[in-house]
């Protein structure tokens, strides 16, 4: 096992980011989140990456923030001012922001516990696939915190205000089946074949019509904060932009010829 706090691997045009501190259940830490932020930024410009999977090493996805390292000090051990702490937290929040906004499909492969900030980064991905061993919870009330890493915004959008408040005020851990029932995850997959099945789904996306996915993602993200006419105007542009792509031409040809499309991502 590598001693790096986060691992990166590219296969079949899928970038897999693995949070790698299994002995502590992969808590969010600066030596994990900032390299991931950098790699996500690089992936935007990399034509050899079509989709991104975020997962955890060992038996957890991410157990949230590192409670043992919440003292608010700089690398030399000096205490941070409140303003410095806020600035640092804003930098950390680029992690969920990029997962939610970059023009590539992001997938959370929740192999175990996704709690607190871990739930936030999972919820910020475009798709959430859970192992049958997946567990979910906010946990912030347990340590007297208010919620970060996008949890309040994402859970409200995904589940509605009433359910989001329930998960925050009564921070019970829910299992994968309940997460599927309430719409927190898209699919529950067998633990025994979880990594393989997630990779197969991710590779299917990564080798699909990437320009179309780019605009689909942006339009859906914008739909929750825009009025109907604004989205209709945007769709008029993005739909016809996709009609100019090689993948549109290939899709039409494959349909007419009754064969599987061979998309190039262009």
Descriptive report:
- With 266 residues, the chain is α/β, with parallel strands linked by helices.
- The protein has helices at 30-44, 82-92, 94-101, 117-123, 151-159, 161-169, 176-181, 194-206, 210-223, 228-242, 246-256, and strands at 6-11, 14-19, 51-56, 60-62, 105-110, 113-115, 127-131, 135-137, 174-175, 187-189.
- Strand 1 and strand 2 (14-19) form a beta hairpin.
- Helix 1 runs parallel beside helix 3, helix 5 (151-159) packs across helix 6 and helix 9 packs antiparallel against helix 10 (228-242).
- 38% of the residues are buried.
- The model has no long low-confidence stretch (mean pLDDT 95).
What distinguishing features does this structure have?
16% strand, single chain, six-stranded mixed β-sheet, 44% helix, 266 residues, alpha/beta
The percentage of residues in β strands lies in: 15-25%
Give average pLDDT, whole number: 95
Largest sheet geometry: 6 strands, mixed
The structure class reads alpha/beta
Number of strands: 10
> Order of SSEs, N→C?
EEHEEHHEEHEEHHEHEHHHH
State the distance separating the first and last CA atoms.
Answer: 37 Å
Proportion in helices = 40-55%
**What global shape is seen?**
globular
Strand order of the largest sheet: 1-2-3-5-7-10
Radius of gyration using CA atoms only: 19 Å
Number of helices: 11
Q: Uncertain runs with pLDDT below 50, 5 residues or more? A: none
């Amino acid at each position: 096992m590598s001693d790096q706090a986060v691992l990166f691997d590219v296969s079949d045009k899928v970038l897999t980011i693995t949070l790698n501190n299994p002995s502590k259940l992969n808590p969010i830490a600066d030596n994990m989140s900032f390299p991931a932020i950098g790699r996500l930024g690089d992936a935007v410009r990399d034509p050899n990456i079509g989709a991104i999977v975020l997962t955890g090493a060992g038996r957890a996805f991410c157990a949230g923030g590192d409670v043992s390292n919440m003292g608010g000090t700089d690398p030399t051990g000096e205490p941070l001012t409140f303003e410095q702490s806020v600035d640092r937290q804003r930098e950390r929040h680029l992690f969920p922001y990029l997962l939610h906004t970059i023009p590539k499909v992001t997938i959370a492969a929740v192999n175990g516990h996704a709690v607190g900030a871990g739930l936030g980064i999972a919820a910020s991905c475009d798709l959430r696939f859970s192992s049958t061993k997946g567990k979910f919870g906010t946990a912030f009330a347990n340590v007297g915190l208010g919620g970060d890493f996008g949890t309040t915004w994402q859970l409200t959008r995904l589940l509605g205000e009433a359910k989001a408040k329930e998960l925050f005020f009564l921070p019970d851990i829910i299992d994968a089946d309940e997460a599927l029932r309430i719409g927190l995850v898209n699919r529950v997959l067998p633990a025994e074949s979880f990594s393989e099945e997630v990779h197969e789904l991710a590779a299917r996306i990564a080798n699909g019509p990437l320009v179309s996915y780019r605009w689909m993602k942006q339009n859906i993200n914008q739909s929750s904060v825009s009025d109907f006419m604004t989205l209709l105007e945007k769709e008029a542009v993005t739909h016809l932009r996709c009609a100019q792509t090689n993948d549109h031409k290939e899709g039409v040809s494959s349909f007419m010829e009754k064969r599987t499309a061979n998309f190039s991502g262009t």
